[in-house]
Amino acid sequence: MRPIQMVDTKTQYLKIKTEVDTAVLGVMESSQFIGGKTVTAFSDDLAVYHGSKHCIPCANGTDALQIAMMALGLKPGDEVITPSFTYIATVEVAALLHIKPVFVDVDPSSFCIDPAKIEKAITPRTKAIIPVHLYGQAADMEKIMAIAKAHNLFVIEDNAQAIGCDYFFSDGRRLKTGTIGHIGCTSFYPSKNLGAFGDGGAMFTHDDELAVKLHMIASHGQSKRYYHDLVGCNSRLDTIQAAILNIKLRNLDEYITARRKAADFYDRTFAGNKNILIPFRDSNNRHVFHQYTLVLQDRDRDGLNRYLAEQGVPSMIYYPVPAHKQKMFDAFGGNSYHLPVTDWLCERVISLPIHTELDEEQQEFIVSRVLEFINN
Description:
This protein is an alpha/beta fold. It contains 13 helices and 14 strands. α5 (89-96) links the parallel β2 and β3.
């Protein structure tokens, strides 16, 4: 049996090695290392894949969130509503811009922001909602967009973990996550479903004016070279990464299918075990399983994490400390929040290996070790 990886990026690379090596060498030979037709081709192809009018590449997913808030004109003292059960980047950029993150609880099934909690958190200073499509499953965007419309709020989708996820509306429409709100943000961190060989990110919008602002802010606020109309930043997708990503984009649906197949195997094995809650699959979206995350009931989650490591099985805890309990948010009254579902999940979630190269022999070994611990 091959060694088990949490994410096996090397084996994935070997399957597309010839194409990737040729593309990277092409960039080297062109010596066009910043911008150019390779980056444009990738952003155009990604826009088409998503059904988005505009795709604006940038240096990473965190920058994408920051640039989105800047483009929407959010100012110090404004508030954004967001889940606390998320990676810190979602809310870190708000604090960086002196915008107050207002934390609300998540749905205990989907782990995504609970729309029922959003309206209660709206104040006159609220300017935006930031739903996070966590672990590869979409937040309830139909309800969230209705709330945003009723209160004249922006919606910035954190789609870093759910690229390729389809969301189904009650009227039959199907849209990709990241293209439903005013701006969608994603990450190409190597472990993502569409991962670069370094950092990268992108923003999506259907709004022409917003697209211009996003482009400008990501490039020092320039309207044209050396003419700076807005305060911006320097956030560019590397040309080599764009070349690699465009090859992997052609395989993204295949990658998602492989992840869903691995998730199906786990589901069949763990279903019915009273000590394990398998991931919920909402009928209104197509979970793409960036992570396969269990919730343990009446079992030692940290003990399982240690035991699996001893057995050569990697596992991860996403996330052991919610955002509102992080020290960085003390100034925003983080400890004053009562988020029981979030706290409950942080004590019980554990993610198992899931990636495109996971084979049945590896999965059988993983589940045998999990059940060995859980059932004792």
